[in-house]
Amino acid sequence: MSGDVPISGAISGGEWPSDAELLRRHVAGDGDAFGELFRRHRDRLWAVALRTVCDPEEAADALQDAMISAFRRAADFRGDSAVTTWLHRIVVNASLDRLRRRAVRPVTSAGDEQALEALLSHDPDPARAADTRLDVHAALRILPPPQRAALVVVDMLGFSVDDAAVILDTSPGTVKSRCARARARLLPYVAHLRGNRSDTERVSPAQGGDA
């Protein structure tokens, strides 16, 4: 997550405003507060959009839709969860909305399956991290969107199951089930991508749903 960046009106004593304080200032009319809040979390918000829709243009549109929604709905935030959890939930919803809009084009296609088989027919260089990320993004495309979103939020972004349940607006049990199904479905496609690395490392390109 991006480091905190000071803005005008920082809390006395040298502490930067919390996320909740930035949101409160935005609601009160501070023209800079929401922009700072977005800059603070944009890398992870972008990651969840990109890995959920698996398309940079669609991800950019989803993130824009989400931030417009968050900007307008800030006054509805009641503090029942962390601000970052609230933001991620809005991004996930916007990303899934994008996928529903393009539902006429199957999320899982024969082309995706063939591309993954072609990847596995070669012996990729483990040092080529960028290629590995592309491989994993290709693998993610075979998952139904609910499973994909759960895997991204829990395994790739590191949220707890309970926080993921809030983000995905479902129960912790459903999150666990979707993650387990997603891991089982991905394993045959990613098991040989990273040489001797563990299965967990192979699934996650960073560090580490029912259909």
Query: In sequence order, what are the helices and strands, one letter per element?
Result: HHHHHHHHHH
Beta fraction of the residues? under 5%
Report the CATH C-level class of the largest domain.
Mainly Alpha
Please give the CATH architecture of the largest domain.
Orthogonal Bundle
Helix count equals 10
Question: How large, in whole angstroms, is the Cα Rg?
Answer: 18 Å
Structural account:
The protein is globular. Residues 1-13, 106-130 and 196-209 have low confidence and may be disordered. With 211 residues, it is mainly α. The protein has 10 helices and no strands. It has 2 domains: 19-101, Orthogonal Bundle (Rna Polymerase Sigma Factor, Chain: A), CATH 1.10.1740.10; 110-203, Arc Repressor Mutant, subunit A (Orthogonal Bundle), CATH 1.10.10.
Write the layout of secondary structure elements.
Layout: H1 19-27, H2 33-53, H3 56-73, H4 83-101, H5 110-120, H6 129-140, H7 145-156, H8 161-168, H9 172-190, H10 199-203
Task: Give the key terms.
211 residues, mainly alpha, Rna Polymerase Sigma Factor, Chain: A, 2 domains, 0% strand, disordered N terminus
Concise structural overview:
The chain has 211 residues and is mainly alpha-helical. The protein has ten helices and no strands.
